[in-house]
Amino acid sequence: MSKRIDEFKKERERLNEAILDRDNRNIQRFFALDGAVYREGALSAKTKELLGLVGSLVLRCDDCITYHLAQVKEAGVTDEEFDEAISIGLVVGGSITIPHIRRAYQTWKELSK
Amino acid sequence: MSKRIDEFKKERERLNEAILDRDNRNIQRFFALDGAVYREGALSAKTKELLGLVGSLVLRCDDCITYHLAQVKEAGVTDEEFDEAISIGLVVGGSITIPHIRRAYQTWKELSK
Amino acid sequence: MSKRIDEFKKERERLNEAILDRDNRNIQRFFALDGAVYREGALSAKTKELLGLVGSLVLRCDDCITYHLAQVKEAGVTDEEFDEAISIGLVVGGSITIPHIRRAYQTWKELSK
Amino acid sequence: MSKRIDEFKKERERLNEAILDRDNRNIQRFFALDGAVYREGALSAKTKELLGLVGSLVLRCDDCITYHLAQVKEAGVTDEEFDEAISIGLVVGGSITIPHIRRAYQTWKELSK
Amino acid sequence: MSKRIDEFKKERERLNEAILDRDNRNIQRFFALDGAVYREGALSAKTKELLGLVGSLVLRCDDCITYHLAQVKEAGVTDEEFDEAISIGLVVGGSITIPHIRRAYQTWKELSK
Amino acid sequence: MSKRIDEFKKERERLNEAILDRDNRNIQRFFALDGAVYREGALSAKTKELLGLVGSLVLRCDDCITYHLAQVKEAGVTDEEFDEAISIGLVVGGSITIPHIRRAYQTWKELSK
Q: How far is CA F100 from CA A75, C61, F46, F60, in A?
């Protein structure tokens, strides 16, 4: 994985721990649930991460997109599958998703090295 | 399919035709593209419709949700797969998606008859 | 103007007055400002109403769209101009604007009678 | 409470139960969490319901607004407090919240009878 | 207050003045109104700033969040109250608010020094 | 044009080409359509770029705003017209657009040199 994305993931982890250390039970429950919904089930983990990716894209959340890109890459999503998922997000969410798509392709390229 | 959803689809079709009759080339191109991105490719049509469903749910578009629900049902999505896709949309988009989820479960029930 | 849109405008007026009767100065100031920004100035009232229309479309607010449609119609916007403004909103905001565009074309048709 | 709002609450309850009957553990956990965050704590239940109301207003979710309006009414929120909370939502979220504010004032009036 | 937040506030002030210098009366009126709705009234300034914070969080506006965090800190909001307000925003707005919550906790920590 | 905006446009172009090189036909079609809707027609290119600007502002997309600002500047939009278009976006979209408006005025100033 590229250095930038590796650092992104470490920083993300560090900040999540800082939040969870606050010992707010409801926030902890949300974080646990946020992990649980992406676990392999009737739908594969790969499909679920793609759902998380497209959801993040249409809501235009760069950090969420970067995270799910790393996950779908690990799940074995190919370039063609990536293109197709992105094109759905683009058509659903419109041209305002394009700046995020530019950054998503940058991240995908780094993840593909 | 239930009568309500059948009527929804016919009304949707009728209105789309009214728009396309206006002969605005750019709007026609968008509608063509909106069909094209969901076609079977590297990702299955089933996965693509699920992506459209979750994108529609987090953006809280009831008509879009109803349409994609009919599509995923036809694509053979099971109850468990439906539950899992919805739960991702719920966690990504938050409690403001819940009224749409209530209506989605109603529609799903009608589609399942 | 069609009966439905005439009733929409009357109901809108009635409810606005109920809100303004509450004598909350800040809400009154907002309503006054909401009228002021659309007044003829360096940009024409027609252009301003089109800006309000496209803003309302990409934010997917049906009541706002209906209101601005009546305004742009009165300002003399033609069918071709309407089509072009809508196509910008569609491309910027994506396919989730389509259900609102269907309703906008219905309203436009009623306004054109 | 008005008949309309009473029916809204019953229908909401009925549909929530239909969703929870599906026995999807993650959706059940989200619903439980959605109840938990509004419980009296360091912040009063009244303040929390006002936070839910303004969050729902700026995200323009009518069903969520109706629900929180019933809750803040029960928590003893006065007309002036209601006006002030709404005016914050209006300024933060802009004129596209106005159709929802119109409906909120209708609901508030029904709740006040 | 931390140096970063102090600079944020100064830069914000400087840019606001640049906008207001343009002498556009409607923009000036909006800015005045944006100040007015948070002033102590039937609801306390503290409650109002919390409403502004949660509104900003669910709409995912980092600059707005930073601003309201400084305000709620000054209004004497405790760590527990902060946690509870954030947890409502998280549940209402979903996991896409999490990157903003990470940054909010960073800012809160700096404000608490 | 200022150096920063010139670099923004070059980087934007470079990234668009990287995306289009991927040879995903649907994404290419969207990009072509995104160019087509702003072309001079029944509405002038100037009006269309203003529509794109206000749409981008209420959806709070900084890159989109910067792009359309360069376009409206080239189309001969004056300071007063710019102020009026921004004030519509501000009223429609609310105070959460203000951070984007601050940046828009910065960009406008650079474009005006």
A: 37, 21, 21, 7
The CA distance from C49 to F88, in Å, is 9
Task: Report yes or no: C68 at the F interface, CB cutoff 8 Å.
Answer: no
Q: Is the pLDDT of residue C7 over 90?
A: yes
Neighbours of C23 (CB within 10 A): 8
Shortest Cα–Cα distance, C29 to chain B (Å): 29
Taking 80 as the threshold, does the pLDDT of residue D1 lie above it?
A: no
CA diameter of chain F: 43
- Within 10 angstroms of residue B79's Cβ, the number of other Cβ atoms is 12
Q: b vs e for E49-88, b when ≥16 Cβ sit within 10 Å of the residue's Cβ?
A: bbbbbbbbbbbbbebbbbbbbbbbbebebeeebbbbbbbb
**Given a cut of 90, is residue F69 above it in pLDDT?**
yes
pTM, to two decimals: 0.97
Task: Return d(Cα F81, Cα F104) in angstroms, integer.
Answer: 14
**What is the band of E1 on the pLDDT scale with cuts at 50, 70, 90?**
low
d(CA A96, CA E34): 27
Q: In the block, which residue shows the tokens 């800006």? A: C51
Q: E18 in helix, strand or coil?
A: helix
Q: Radius of gyration over alpha carbons of chain C, in Å?
A: 15
- pLDDT value of position A1: 64
Helix axes A98-112, A3-20, angle to 10 degrees: 110
What is the distance, to the nearest Å, from the Cα of residue B20 to the centroid of all Cα atoms in its chain? 20
Q: Which residue has the tokens 């419109």?
A: A94
- Structure-block tokens of residue A41: 């089930």
Per-residue pLDDT band for E31 (boundaries 50, 70, 90) equals very high
Chain B CB within 8 Å of residue F37 CB? yes
Residue type, F30: F
Q: Please report which residue ranges of E1-113 form alpha helices under DSSP H.
A: 3-20, 25-36, 45-58, 62-74, 79-93, 98-112
- Predicted pLDDT at C23: 87
The token pair at B46 is 């089933």
Residues D66 and C5 sit within 8 Å (Cβ to Cβ):
no
CATH number for the domain harbouring residue C106 = 1.20.1290.10
Q: How far is CA E95 from the centre of its chain?
A: 20
Q: Find out whether F93 and F60 touch, Cβ atoms under 8 Å.
A: yes
CB–CB of A84 and F22 under 8 A?
no
Nearest Cα residue to A38 out of A47, A25, A29, A26:
A47
Range of the domain at E45: 3-112
Q: Test A92 with C90 for CB contact under 8 angstroms.
A: no
In angstroms, the CA B94 to CA B78 distance is 24
- Virtual CA dihedral for F42, B25, F30, F56, nearest 10 degrees? 30
Cα–Cα distance between B13 and A28 in angstroms, integer? 46
Among E80, E88, E91, E98, pick the best mutation site for testing chain A contact (most A Cβ within 10 A): E98
User: How deeply is F17 buried, as exposed, middle or buried, from its count of CB atoms within 10 A (0-12, 13-18, 19+)?
Assistant: exposed
The burial class, CB within 10 Å (0-12 / 13-18 / 19+), for A12 is middle
Number of domains observed in the structure of chain A: 1
Instruction: Return the SS3 of D16.
Output: helix
